[in-house]
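Box S2. Input/output pair 1.
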Amino acid sequence: MDSNEFFAPARPPVDDNPDDNPDGNVAGNSDESAGGGSVAVVVAAEDDGVAVDRATGDAAPAEPRPAKTPKSDRTPVWVDLLNPSSDEIHEIEKRFAIEVPTREEMQEIELSSRLYDEDGVLFMTVSVLNKANTDEPETTAITFILVKKTLITLRYADPIPFKTFIRRVNRTAALASSAETVLFGLLEQIVDRLADIMEQSTADLEGLSNIVFSSPDDPEYEGDHRAVLRRIGRAGNLSGKAKDSLLNLHRLGLFLSTQPRLKKDTKTRLKTISRDIVSITEHANFIANKVTFLLDATLGMINLEQNNIIKIFSVAAAAFLPPTLIASIYGMNFDVMPELDWQFGYPLAIGLMVLSAVLPLWYFKRKGWL
């Protein structure tokens, strides 16, 4: 198998003398003893007894332990497939006797194609928010396959929750004590990440609100509303993708709650995750409403500024209309126009034009239109 397939630390095998391992560390999977060192994640390989430590990248032959179960006979609790090749998928299908969904099937939105039970094997596909800190956030489909005592995750992206959870597993082997533990640990990590994103979005929207409603004399005032609109649009896009991910997680929680194979403590943990999903969804709805409000407010401010510009042109047109009329009258080429031969005709015409322009401006100013 390629190094893109990872195994979480397996359960500790039965030992004739439990006192030799009082701290419950996974034998053969820990770099250090009870000191809490990093846990080696076993990379899938041929049955040649080779263990790979992800912390160092070094490979070394596994030392035989007569009292332990051979590693080749162990069942992994977690197989993480990141961008697997067709050969890797075929080997997983052969090894676990399952049919792994294709990448196209993972993108289907109907519920029956995302959450189903096939001969006791649970197939669960959810959309997880990825690249949330960039200008182009996206949702990526990730499939969880629960096969008896093994969890298989199939993904074609590397979102932050998976990176974080793998680091935590390397530090604490107990997080990967069973397939269900890994599944709920990943779901909790995804939900925590969505909560962090919603908190950050709320803070960003508060800053945008101050900018939108700031006075033109305020240092934070931005005359160019295009940047504000782009930031509001990004917040709305991020909120929409987060709500899509939360909806998928909520459906996954409902699907798991109907499975009789889950133990009581596991269902209690699932209820906690479901409550968190509901509360974050409500917060995401609040953010969506906030985005709509700020978008309407920004467009309203733009309309006000445009109206002020149009008002200036309207006042200018009204102010210069009387002088234009006077100039047009005296520009007519009639033979009988007494003012043309008058000595003060020209100064009078100029004075009338100035007066006809000043009077409207004075009137508009008095009315507060300027």
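Box S3. Input/output pair 2.
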Amino acid sequence: MASEKAPRPQTSSTESTSSGNKTGPTHVEDIHGESPEVFQERYEYYSRYPNRWSRYRQYIREPAAEMLGTMTLILFGTGVDCQVVLSMNTGVAAFPRGDWLSINFGWACGAALGVWVSGGISGGHCNPVVTLCMAVYRGFPWKKVPIYILGQLLGAWIGGFLVYANYFHAINIYEGGDGVRTLKTGALFSTYSAAYMPAANCFFDEFLGAFILMLVVFAVSDKRNGPPPPGLVPLVIFIVILGIGAAFGMQTGYAINPARDLGPRLMTAMVGYGRQVFNFRDQYWIWTPILGSLSGGLVACFVYDVLIFTGDESYINSPSASARRHFAHARHAERPMAPAGFEPDHDV
């Protein structure tokens, strides 16, 4: 309707005819020789894209949001790891600056703030497990999956590198010399299991952590399951990450996020830790933080959809032949911009 369109800008000046009589207000479109319809169309276009960069930005906003959100997660998470562990050396600090609970709070803050940074643009995945599960069970476009995951990996790499640069000299002191790099400090950036853990238990530990995470993520994305207001979803993420770390973080470091582990792991390999970060326990990095997390997340979402979810977004609720004959299907039940749940900005 015409009332819904943006008002056409017009000047307050008047034109004079050759006889000296004044006409009504001069419209801008008249000055540019454009019809009102063409002017209105271009006005709305340039309101959305005021310059050339704004046109390019629309193509990278979502992966860029994932990059910044995951970078925020890693800044707080690996930052608190470094502060707590490195400060245990008296050459670094007079007394320890934190404990295991500090680490749990740091990772929980990073996860919550990462969702806040990216939630309104990309949905606040910040985790390949979330992205893959949304594609499998919620109709998230598969064409976006690679660029989301690439953005998450890049953000994790950048976050890890910034923390490493910040604590570089403290790491030298803790390691006992300039340039000495072992897994004692490599574990500040990526996850490594306790020595007593057999391979199957390592896998199951990450499976269980990711299972809990995705069960909660799908619950807060289900508008028929009493979800929190959009702005409080990051608080839920804070609580679940804090709980997973406090209850299940000891044995494998609760990666529960392939990007959170692989991005900083690549960074450590590049800054001097070498191949030891990948050779640990026969490529532990593949079968525990990556495959364990992905498996746990996918199973959790399957369980939730089979037992709880009633929306047509999930293939579990695909209409039967009888339902299709009556042109019936389940109703939508997923919140917009899942999992963050913020209202999408239709003006971009």
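Caption for Box S3: The domain at 61-307 is CATH 1.20.1080.10 (Glycerol uptake facilitator protein). The two ends are 20 Å apart (CA to CA).
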